[in-house]
Amino acid sequence: MMTIKDVAKIAGVSVATVSRVLNESGYVNIDTRKKVEAAIKEMNYTPNEVARSLYKRKSKLIGLLLPDITNPFFPQLARGIEDRMQEHGYRIIFGNSDENEEKELDYIQTFIQNNVIGMISSTNFPEKDIYSNLKIPVVFLDRTSNDSPSVYADGRKGGRLAAQEIIARGSTKITVMQGPAHIKPAQDRFQGAIEVLNEMGITYQVIQTSSFSHTEAEQWAVELFDKYIDTDGVIASNDIVATAVIHEAHRLGKRVPQDLQIIGFDDIPLSSLLSPSLSTIRQPAHDMGREAAGLLIKLIEQDKVEDKIIQLPVSFVERETTRRKE
Amino acid sequence: MMTIKDVAKIAGVSVATVSRVLNESGYVNIDTRKKVEAAIKEMNYTPNEVARSLYKRKSKLIGLLLPDITNPFFPQLARGIEDRMQEHGYRIIFGNSDENEEKELDYIQTFIQNNVIGMISSTNFPEKDIYSNLKIPVVFLDRTSNDSPSVYADGRKGGRLAAQEIIARGSTKITVMQGPAHIKPAQDRFQGAIEVLNEMGITYQVIQTSSFSHTEAEQWAVELFDKYIDTDGVIASNDIVATAVIHEAHRLGKRVPQDLQIIGFDDIPLSSLLSPSLSTIRQPAHDMGREAAGLLIKLIEQDKVEDKIIQLPVSFVERETTRRKE
DNA sequence: TTGTAGGCGTTATCAG
DNA sequence: CTGATAACGCCTACAA
């Protein structure tokens, strides 16, 4: 491994000078600069980030904590984050928390031990001391807490939209699937939906779902029709559950959207490929990731940041699981 | 930030002693050990991994390079890797390569600058010098190169299976979708399938697909029926394309599986939720991730590793896009 | 404009 | 059994 010393030696200067050209700091004669640059290129030298990090007490690493990368919504966030971070020279240490506080703590711990310079987290525990006591900037993604920096989509609005659209298209016996109680955005959606339902005086039923996992989605779909066989409109807690509902409706011989309309949430990439393709409330996941990254970078690089809360708009994506508007 | 010095001070010993108890190295009197441990707990001290890494010239970080986390196959690999690594105290620095050599190089570069102790890569360029010149262990995942350590599923076998099963279920005008030319496993599948087709003397057509992206999947599905409207069996290059094919078949009024059978590849989590649910060749993605992590850990921690090539079995998952065997 | 030297937090060597 | 102390590779006063 090359070190700054080696470069200094073959450039015939001191390490301090090499460091100066490396960091474009302080004065350095144009000619010696050239010599140094030549040496660097020749030896194909790149500075050891670990040593840098030790000295500066901070690295170019940022910590990313997501509940479960296996849920199709999160890779999109991750991708948005990574794209933006990468443009700015930051790298990502990644962990799945499984919404498990202990695991989360453990990761935060090691993030800090590795001098991460900032962190993005989709945690269910944003209020915890761990976060408020952190000495590095944190951005909550798809989550919020008071006035902490955060990026999220307007879940309540999304829920309202879903209800409005499904009502406008003629469903009258609506079932709302309520996502996991401990996940804030899931509850926002739910609240938004029932708000509208109540305002319009439409009767509805609720199905509780306690997670967003693929494996359990099927069960809830079954439970749904088991309890409410004659429902004619389902507002699902996300696209995965919605997919399972389509599947189950098919199995029961229900026609979608004629007998039953379904609206999902998220607009994961596969939604448009389903048969029928899924009408859904779109969250701009990739953008959310980019924004979160952008916000964190600001927090890191600027001392004063005005807009620390970024709310992105959701929108109704009309596809084939809803009828044409009357 | 606490340092080992602070601990030493309040424990009334030298840093060397603290270091010894931290690393369980060398002798240390039981009583002083207790004092030190008490101090550590009291101050809630955790060692600075960066300093450790600098001294040891290697960290507890491993680099992970995946083509695109947005493709549902990869999160599963990632998850498998992470789970296993996490159990062993390793953390992951992650990057999307987009199958772009330059990006890949860039990441490898920074991985090394960060003293990663090993690397897992799903690269299309395993033969490149960058890899062979690396001084840290590398495991290729879902990829291979000569006798480099690697973990992958038996793609050729998978292709053969797909062809055998679809033939056994009565398709006679088969279309094989050939995945991206530069992706080895995609070609293996293709080869396996046409091998069987040729052996059995079945005529078939080929549709080229140049990527695995969601956005383009739809186009190939359209192209497929555009060119071969009366095909009665499709062997898709992966589950995403297969999903698009189901969708397009629906649109054209074809009944699946009566008029048209479809077999996918991968068995991504959503496959079972589709309508009809997708028959596919399953790759044990999560296990592949775990195995790759396990192999890398061995490579790191042991000096001699016997089985450096791990091939995992694929299997046919019978669902609703194929008919019952006759 | 350039070089010397001290320090970032740990570990390991070597006396004691 | 314990304690100085020299690295690890880099950056930044401070001198020259």
Automatic annotation (TrEMBL), chains A, B:
UniProt keyword DNA-binding, yes or no: yes
SUPFAM superfamilies: lambda repressor-like DNA-binding domains (SSF47413), Periplasmic binding protein-like I (SSF53822)
Positions of the HTH lacI-type domain: 2-56
SMART domains from the UniProt entry: HTH_LACI
Domain (HTH cro/C1-type) ranges: 2-50
Keywords: DNA-binding, Repressor, Transcription, Transcription regulation
InterPro entries: Cro/C1-type_HTH, HTH_LacI, LacI/GalR-like_sensor, Lambda_DNA-bd_dom_sf, Peripla_BP_I
PANTHER family recorded: LACI-RELATED TRANSCRIPTIONAL REPRESSOR, RIBOSE OPERON REPRESSOR
Protein's recorded name: Ribose operon repressor
